[in-house]
Amino acid sequence: MTSAPFDADIVLVGGGLAGLSFALAAGQAGLSVLVLDAATPATSLASGFDGRVSALGRASIRLMGGLGVWPLLVKDAQPILDIMVSDGRVESGPSPLALHFDHLDGDATRSGQPLGHILENRHIRAALYTALADYAATVSVRTPVRVLSALPDAYGITVQLADGGSLRGRLCVAADGRQSVLRLAAGVKSVAWNYGQSGIVATVHHARPHGGLAHEYFLPGGPFAILPMTGARSSLVWTEPTARAQALMALGQADFDAELRRRFGSQWGEINSEGPRWIYPLSFHHARNYVSDRLVLVGDAAHTIHPIAGQGLNLGLRDVAALAEVLVDAHRLGLDIGAATVLERYQAWRRFDNVSLSIAMDMFNRLFSNDAPLLRLARDIGLGVVGQIGPLRRLAMRHAAGDVGTLPRLMAGKVL
After folding, report:
1. Contacting residues for 382 by C-beta, under 8 A, at least 6 apart
2. What are the tens digits of pLDDT across the range 178-227?
3. Neighbours of 50 (CB within 10 A)
């Protein structure tokens, strides 16, 4: 293959939250990006597309601010003012030994700031599409497009499409999810396993205000997360062994809500689920490499973690910010953005953070998703101890907010 004309500097496969965020960051910095997605915007922006919400930490909010997206999101964002982490049983309720994070507890630069914000994924997706409209000169989106593979050569990479066509770039970015077609086609191996758990996602209305409290309630079947939304609403992420989760999904609303009330607690008053429910099988995977010849993986294409602390999107956005910085810096120096030496910098930067958080979330799930008496006692004491030691508690808060490690410029509130 000779140096054939390029359709764009970067061919990006996957129009999810991480993919669109990367396209916006790269496009704003002058790189041309061609986004290919299997779903049309009309499908992915529909209110019933997936029902999920995301907890964006402080660093992710700064990224959205740097991309000019935050002003489009703020009206739909629910600040997280408190986080409660507790262990318990359905029959007896939460343990009195709990870990509490308060947004007023922090150093002088962070005290009083929300710990994060909850946003419906559809609102984030819509805001990203709106922001991208201002960068039509550098970013274009094609849908619906199904991709089969990407073939690298010395000069660039050719993305093969299911309709027989092809597109060519200097680099291909795979943001096509945990079942990444491009990762598999490139032969990149992963460490992976299923948890035997599924997460039920639903929206719940309650009579009393939530006050910005997010509650991670660990039950023997898995974590039961209550995430505050705008208004008197919360998003429920209810993890159970898959067979049990499927049985709950099959219940009518009255019976489902009865099971929900047994776990939800009375502090929110009368509660009722609203609208459709979704169920998602939970699994772990981590790619052994994030880069191949002129191919780079970001977000769920590179790693999928247990949703136990809602960190999946934050982890993906850190990938996005780091990759954008590496590529933009190389481009400004006149380097080949698809060169192995350039891509290796991204991989080296992101590997430790991704691996350490992935392992931590896996260990937390295994530790808490059981009813062994001695383990229950040990973890209850552990939560209570961490909650009483100020510096340790505040360090945990900074991890949850994404304010640790070497942050990419966009996540540190700086210009790319």
Report:
1. none
2. 999 999 999 999 999 999 999 999 999 999 999 999 988 888 888 899 99
3. 15
- Could you give the CA distance from residue 337 to residue 294 in angstroms, rounded to a whole number? 9
Tell me: cis bond preceding 144? Omega within 30 of 0 counts.
Answer: yes
* Side-chain half-sphere exposure of 376, counting CA atoms within 13 A: 14
Eight-state DSSP code of residue 300: G
Q: Domain segments of the chain: what residues?
A: 8-78+119-193+284-370
DSSP per position, 35-64: EE-SS-HHHHTSTTS---EEEEEHHHHHHH
Q: Phi then psi for 244, rounded to 5 degrees?
A: -65, -40
Written as one letter, the residue type at 127 is A
Q: How long is the chain?
A: 416
What token pair was written down for 224? Answer: 């039961």
Task: Kindly tell me the number of DSSP H helices and DSSP E strands found in the chain.
Answer: 12, 20
Buried b / exposed e over 99-128, threshold 16 CB at 10 Å, is bebebebbeeebeeebbbbbbbbbbbbbbb
Q: What's the CA gap between 274 and 253, in Å, rounded?
A: 9
Which tokens belong to 196?
């035997």
Please give the C-alpha separations between residue 114 and each of 103, 123, 226, 316, 402, in angstroms, as whole numbers: 6, 19, 17, 21, 13
Q: Which residues pair with 238 in a beta bridge?
A: 200, 224
Residue type, 318: R
Domain 8-78+119-193+284-370, CATH class in plain words? alpha beta
Give the SS3 label for residue 329: helix
Q: How far apart are CA 274 and CA 265, in angstroms?
A: 17
- Per-residue pLDDT tens over the stretch 44-102: 888 777 889 999 999 999 999 999 999 999 999 999 999 888 887 887 777 767 777 78
Residue 160 CB-density burial (10 A; 0-12 exposed, 13-18 middle, 19+ buried): middle
Q: What are the CA-CA distances from residue 264 to residues 94, 98, 211 (Å)?
A: 10, 16, 15
Taking CA atoms, 406 is separated from 6, 107, 171, 206, in Å, by: 33, 19, 25, 40
8-state DSSP, 96 = S
DSSP state for residue 88 in the 8-state scheme: E
